[in-house]
């Protein structure tokens, strides 16, 4: 009995001292694309839904959880994206995923990558969001979309951008020149 109790105590002590395992993935494609906009190496974390729900930073946005699509930890220098948006950005060419998921995933990745960039507007949500929407089609193409697919996804990104700017004034800037959607037809 003492041996069993000692073994159980040793197991509990080992578990308590063990480093917590991360439930997130780090897709190389998303990290390469984020690095292109951050102009430096970028760590992108795609957590499980359980990890996302229990995330201490995501949890701080309890007043407006519907607006939290991702964040950049500027102290530890990494990006965390909502699991659905990670899947959308990573599978931008997968037509079985909803177009909004792929577009918002790409837009959020680009937005958060601009927060990693070492520039004067790093902490300015309006400037970061403006750059993200302006660079949406280039980002979508870096993720693997054709120019036509990037254009087809642009209206969803523009709608997400407009929603964010309407709900949260910090994400708005008057001088931002939005990209134009090209009608997908030939003469």
| Order of secondary-structure elements | HHEHHEEHHHHH
Number of helices: 9
Biggest beta sheet attributes: 3 strands, mixed
- In round numbers, the mean pLDDT is 86
Radius of gyration: 20 Å
Going by helix content, strand content and strand pairing, the class is mainly alpha
Classify the beta-strand content into a percent band. Answer: 5-15%
Name the poorly predicted regions.
4-20
Helical residue percent band: 40-55%
By oligomeric state, this entry counts as: single chain
Which term fits the overall shape?
globular
Number of strands: 3
Q: How many angstroms separate the termini?
A: 85 Å
Number of domains: 1
Which sequence of strands runs across the widest sheet? 1-3-2
Q: How would you characterize the overall build of this protein?
A:
With 187 residues, the chain is mainly alpha-helical. It has one domain (20-171). Helix content is 53%, strand content 5%. The protein contains nine helices and three strands; from the N terminus they run ααβααββααααα. It has helices at 2-17, 28-38, 49-53, 56-59, 83-90, 99-116, 125-134, 136-142, 147-167; strands at residues 44-45, 70-73, 78-81. The chain has a three-stranded mixed sheet with strand order 1-3-2. The chain is globular, with a radius of gyration of 20 Å. The termini are far apart. Mean pLDDT is 86; it is low at 4-20.
